[in-house]
Queue: 2 jobs
Job 1
Amino acid sequence: MMASHSSAGIPAAAQILVATRKGTFFVEKTATGWQPRLVGHAGTSVNFVARDPYTGRYWALLGHGHWGAKLSVSDDGGATWADAPAQICFPEGARFIAQDMYEDASSEHGVGWKISTKAATLQKLWVIGFGPGGAVYVGTIPGGLFVSRDGGASFQLNLPLWNHESRGGDLFASEGTGETKWFGTPASEGGDFAPGIHSIVVDPRNPQHLMVAVSTAGVIESLDGGASWHSRNKGMAMDHTPEPEAEWGHDTHFIEQCVGDPDHLWQQNHAGVFYSRDRGASWTLVSQPDAGVHFGFPVAAHDSDGRTAWLVPARGDNQRMALDGGLFVARTRDGGSTWTQLRDGLPQGCVYDVVYRHALAQQGGVVAFGSTTGNLYVSDDGGDHWSTVANNLPPIYSVRLA
Amino acid sequence: MARLHLTRHLFVFFPQLEGRELVVNGNTAREIVDGLDAVAPGIGLYVCDERGRLRTHVNLFIDKQMVKDRRALTDPVGADADVHILQALSGG
């Protein structure tokens, strides 16, 4: 197959990697269109599948339910998969401060609320990111960033972020401050309400510059390869809380960096769409509710034009499904000043899909997204026209391009 | 010494164990799980979490008795015992 190229010189995606509730699917472009096939993990819940662009290795983040979360790898293009040689494990003594509701018959409401310090064990593998020189980053629930410097032969929990003052300090050594400003997400497996890391950005100019995003804490940056971390939440506003501009507690749903213009970052947040032109030093709300652009989970940045991005908005946050029964992708080319609804080829009647935070991606003009209803759509022209890849996949958790 | 009986679901991930008679040395449930992990490296982390606790929806029976110490697996395993490892059934 000849790879086509966008005007920016980024190769158009040749492969769509789809993580679903019931296995890993690859979708490849053929003479008759994009063809999906199940490549592994049949029957297993897969949260995220990605290809390490530095090594060509494929990684799948599994949630077995009964048997725990596992990293699975393929070194033969997805033909065979095996558990990764090193699995993600929280070290002995790792703890986090959690907030729990509990049954309390003496309360007039029947429930109480308590802050407790819990031992951390892996609940969910949520996202994986890659850097040069064998760097592999895995974000988990509870909110750990695990780092490998040897291509995944071993992983270590990043302690400066785990022990950050915003979540109560070093709980290995003491009880810390007893207070966390990180809240939970219901996205964990097993029902615990714990914070999770769902976005990892490695700056292509400087791999020491890392960003992660957390539900629910916000955007956090390191300029020294993970030795220290600070918030990057200025300009964001939590319109659902009594202190909208607090430093912490922001419900960032996903962030993505423009790899060709890395000062430009896009964010879909619970409280709207935010855009940064200064590497996250400040964020600007660029929602346009009358164009249907405000709530949603995913966002995709352009390869080279920092002002261009795609969203799949949802009716939020009390419904979390397609707006008014029709599915559209929203695209901006001017930094969020204006948004265009792209509907050509997408279903416009009786549609109730929702697209999760990792389930929209763009590379070289190919845009693809999948919904929890098992529908997968692709566009080869930046979103102007869409075609249906499949309608009966399992619930789709992640769509990445390679 | 115990004869181990595993749910067939584990054979999906550890096909080398299917159809084998699994006899493992150990005087406690912990030692049995560790012995199983020596036979099939990695399986211990399927049965238990990284703190060694039996996973929430996994069960272990020693001669038809459900294990009592799910945290440390100190339950004794007699000579010639039968140990079953299985999962809770769930839908979806």
Job 2
Amino acid sequence: MTTAPTTGYTAHFKVWRGDDEGGGLEDFEVEVNEGEVVLDIIHRLQATQAPDLAVRWNCKAGKCGSCSAEINGRPRLLCMTRMSVFDRAETITVTPLRAFPVVRDLVTDVGFNYEKAREIPSFVPPEKLAPGEYRMQQEDVDRSQEFRKCIECFLCQDTCHVVRDHEENKASFAGPRFLMRVAELDMHPLDAAKDEGLDRRTSAQDEHGLGYCNITKCCTEVCPEHIKITDNALIPLKERAADRKYDPLVWLGNKIFRRKE
Amino acid sequence: MTQVERQQWDVVVVGAGGAGLRAAIEAREQGLRTAVICKSLFGKAHTVMAEGGIAASMGNVNAGDNWQVHFRDTMRGGKFLNSWRMAELHAKEAPDRVWELETWGALFDRTKDGRISQRNFGGHEYPRLAHVGDRTGLELIRTLQQKVVSLQQQDFKETGDYESRIKVFQECTVTRILKGPDGRVSGIFYYERESGRFFVIESPAVVLATGGIGKSFKVTSNSWEYTGDGHALALLAGASLINMEFVQFHPTGMVWPPSVKGILVTESVRGDGGVLRNSEGKRFMFDYIPDVFKEKYAQSEDEGDRWYEDPDNNRRPPELLPRDEVARAINSEVKAGRGSPHGGVFLDVSTRLPAEEIKRRLPSMHHQFKELADVDITAEPMEVGPTCHYVMGGVDVDPDTAAALGVPGLFAAGEVAGGMHGSNRLGGNSLSDLLVFGRRAGLYAAEYARDAAGSGAKRAEVDEEQIAAASAEALRPFSAEAGAGAAGKDGDADGGTRPPENPYTLHQELQQSMNDLVGIIRREAEMSEALNRLGDLRVRARRAGVEGHRQFNPGWHLALDMRNMLLVSECVARAARERTESRGGHTRDDHPAMDRDWRKQNLVCRLADPAGGALPAADVPDPERGQIRLEKREMPPIRPDLLDLFEKDELVKYLTDEELTE
């Protein structure tokens, strides 16, 4: 294209269309304007060429984590991927999240994540404190607050190689998002799980598959909230769990960690 | 006849945002089997977009705060049109609702002594908003979501089934409230987005918690879900709506690039020190302090700046006036030719706080501008302008129980309920509203359902005819192409050979019309024109056709949402044309002053043809006449002990002489 940089141009898109019985990439030529994101282009396709093209989205501002898909094979939020990051001549391929079963077009069945969420024991309020009596220092809540920035887009769950191509691991592995949830509760200054006989660290290892994680940091790389899932949640959880259990990866993780510092 | 699967639950909550989840938790804790139906995935509700915080007079930062001060601020913000009883309950109960969230695992930002930190916000006399950076809504949703999960875990231990007492039906859209022959609610009719299949839930109590209507406007901070579903469902079920003329345009939405126009820029930017400037570099808000607020706001930049450090001896800067005032001021500056390059004004925090502090206090704003607009807010100003944000109007409810007037078994809470915020909502009062009235709706819906069961009276039967009518209505867009006969019956002069309409095009035309003709500044002739266009769109919307099949088909979903958007848009336009004054979120160019006589008047919207309510909207006989009937209703007088919280000098500005002498 030879258009001036401030005007629109026509981009070439390939979008996966189909359902649980199969499908394939469909080609589209579509107008792109300045400042647009990939979700804008998907919406333009719906409005002008493919009214029944299925896509999930809500806020269009990177806050709800609904529009997760894969763009040129990389897990991303459609609403936070600007068209300007691509070369104008480039073909842009949009496909559904690979780790989850397709429902239709770009929409997948993310039920796996909701099942895993239920398996993580909830926050246990301290018995002796009434509502309004909680006192916590900012520095003590900082760590858990970082994990609570999570918008549950499930990109980390999608990219994690433990389950991405290994359906058989899904039963015993909670995935980065929910291992991070265990870490969040473990680091909560007032969580009283211990009083109920629950050790969150051992349960991460024994019940939620922490041992499968070999800290390749793929989850951290795709996180649109830039949460340091591996460094701040998973490795500390492994270290804590390792007080009770030997995990060779903790040793390796520490080595990698130190070399970087 | 279509075979439709049925289930029975004690309470059904429509919507899984803050109000819906809080209602569901309450109903379940009351021991009732509770179903939650939501359009999106569980945890994605529009509440996550709320940034600034939850208003509650805990007094953690300034001990002078209490419920009376919060009540006063709320009434002033709403220009005294609020349901004073709701404003009272809200101010009294908000602190308990926030503290309760901590016991469910919420982690708010802290004060130095370890309490919940509170920040300043427009219209609030003291720092009052409990917050988590600028992602408070996400924290609220996640906490409620995780509380629901913890209840499900308890139920699993006892019954072996996570969903035995509380179940979330996600990605499902309710299209009709069903009623028994005696007028009581009997259940709901919905479709599942994934399969396109229809279902019925039989239930004596239904709580509407569906949020707002912003998707009827072009420039909006609202998501696709905000199509006024609950408002329309209530109307169709025979309930009434109030205050629909009051639509809040948030003063600061992004204006550039075009694809993000309307996305919210949190008020916290101003609460934490950000200022508004025009193209001449002037802090113009000092020129726009209205008389009713003159004594309460700084008259000079110096005084305004001192206030951040010494609020007891200085008055707040006018950037923190209620949202309606700030939005109008920005609109005027742009119209006067003093706007920014892309048609907004400048919001600057970069010269007011150190870069690190900005990143710490406003992380998601920093992220949003960097990623979407290539603007570094720690180094340069943002460009902002008004965006449709919130509807003050909603279902006409009993203030204490959240029960919809006139429809036994129907309840409403959150944005879909009217009254609480009067003519204008203060920032931060939305999240607290969700919690306070969400809980109340859940409590009283549970009580109602229990009484209904306890009295031995049979549940209202779900009528097969209503199910058949609802199915036919929902399937209509698929037969639009073959609909020559149907179109002919609708009275097309050319015998119904017109092609089907594209729902996306209809939606865009609706948004443009509402934006241009019933927007932030309104004129009678334009609103009449809007009503004409709405009539035309309504006729065309009957021919909205869709391609493909029923599985996850967004074109079909939009075609069905059009019915709701057209109904609520007509309410807004009709009520706005009727109210010949300017107040809060309703500004008339042709009636620019606030009129004390209008202060105690609510405009009540009802379906014009109640019998048509049980029929598909397309069969309403005369499209030109419109679907909505308006009625004026006097508000109950404000209780004397609440009036005593204000100085007489201030009340004179709002109340009529007659009211003052009583």
